[in-house]
Amino acid sequence: MDCEKIGKLICHLRQEKHMTQKQVADLMNISDKAISKWERGLGCPDVSLLPELSEIFGVNIEEILAGEIKLNETIGGNMKKLKFYVCPHCNNLLTATGDANLSCCSKRLEALAAAKASGEHLLNIEPVEDELFVSSSHEMKKEHYLSFVAYVTGDRAYIVKQYPEWNMQFRFHKLGHGKLYFHCSTHGLFYQLL
């Protein structure tokens, strides 16, 4: 741990929140001298205080310990860079258009890598007027099912959440070229071009 880097970050975060050392210290029930000591790089916060610092400043504990916050570049409206994250325990679905540190059920999630669909994982896609009728004969049991389907174009993403025992069929309003992403609870993320 680099106490100097951590101290500079704490000082920056405190100033960003327009707080004094005393205000932070009062929230943590510690002396403002401790905050001053940290900010000057003469010591680091005790591990037991990190969750509270994280809460006050709205940053991850890992960022405090690293002494820096990594910011993403500003990303335009291009949804083609959309990343999908699925919790392996509760099947919670999260998305991000840039790099993100996400966790669920106390576990860090990694962005899923999509494989091109083939064989049993191909979805049936039928144009019906100005819509796409999507269906699949994929098994839909608790142990093995499609948990979501997402229609992603350059500026939009439409997601349909699926559950075991449901019929795997629905409609999307046709928006032009894009990809259909879908997640099999056993085999991972797949995509099909539209």
UniProtKB/TrEMBL annotation:
Transmembrane segments: none annotated. InterPro entries: Cro/C1-type_HTH, Desulfoferrodoxin_Fe-bd_dom_sf, Lambda_DNA-bd_dom_sf. PROSITE patterns: HTH_CROC1. GO terms for molecular function: DNA binding; iron ion binding; oxidoreductase activity. Pfam families: HTH_3. Residues 13-64 form the HTH cro/C1-type domain. Keywords: DNA-binding. The keyword Ribonucleoprotein does not apply. This is Helix-turn-helix. It comes from Dendrosporobacter quercicolus. The lineage of its organism: Bacteria, Bacillati, Bacillota, Negativicutes, Selenomonadales.
